[in-house]
Automatic annotation (TrEMBL):
This is Rhodanese. InterPro entries: Rhodanese-like_dom (IPR001763), Rhodanese-like_dom_sf (IPR036873). It comes from the Bacteria. Residues 33-130 form the Rhodanese domain. GO terms for molecular function: thiosulfate-cyanide sulfurtransferase activity.
Amino acid sequence: MAQTIVVSSQQLVEEAERAIETLTVAQALALHGRDDVTFVDIRDPREREREGKIPGAFSCTRGMLEFWIDPASRYYKPVFGEDKTFVFFCAGGLRSALAAATAKHMGLQPVAHMAGGFGAWRDAGGPLEAPEARKAT
């Protein structure tokens, strides 16, 4: 018997966006570089290698997010214990909405996500770190 999906991925993103703050790229650019804000890049490492990074962003893949936020987890990252605003972003703004909603649900606050993600940031002329050169093996 085939699986019946009762909630679409788009519905999940829409629910997440209703629960969190969504920043425009202009709003995110205005926050970049502030000491009280941490940008969280949830893209896959291959995406960062290919496209580059937002300077100063903390990299946390989507798959490890819950474990890195939870202080009781052996994978906890102290950056998530800091008294800061966390701005999540991905490549296009879908995964980051889900990530920010999950972080908020876990108790991390304040959180937001950037509409349009890294692509919108790049297209708006936001500062970038060049992609890392691949090492020859």
